[in-house]
Amino acid sequence: MFQLTVQSHQRVELINITSQVQALISQQKINSGACLLFVPHTTAGITINENADPDVARDIMATLSRLVPQRGDYQHLEGNSDAHIKAVLTGSSVIVPISQGRLQLGTWQAIYFAEFDGPRRRQVLVSFLASLV
């Protein structure tokens, strides 16, 4: 297992980590299989979405903030209940196929670390699953 470090700079932020993941695949000489990415935090998540237009990431975060506002009728005393809920909505893991040493993402796709309670220094755990074919 490997670990990537992600530094967020805002409370709510999508950070493209695709190049970091691809660099790790290249360093480890992984030719085929799959890459499992897991975020071991309860106020952050991981997702795959469009990278061509930065407005898409802005729209995603703005919509999540409208759906789950920072201030609400929450019982959790730390003041970050919205971050926990947003993390549930994005999820904590993704799996991406690898072929010929490259992530098999769609033309417009990128892997995003989703920060909901930053700024913080976070970790993404990375495992490689071997191809059986």
UniProtKB/TrEMBL annotation:
It holds the Pfam family YjbQ. It comes from the Bacteria. Belongs to the UPF0047 family. This is Secondary thiamine-phosphate synthase enzyme. It comes from Thermanaeromonas toyohensis ToBE.
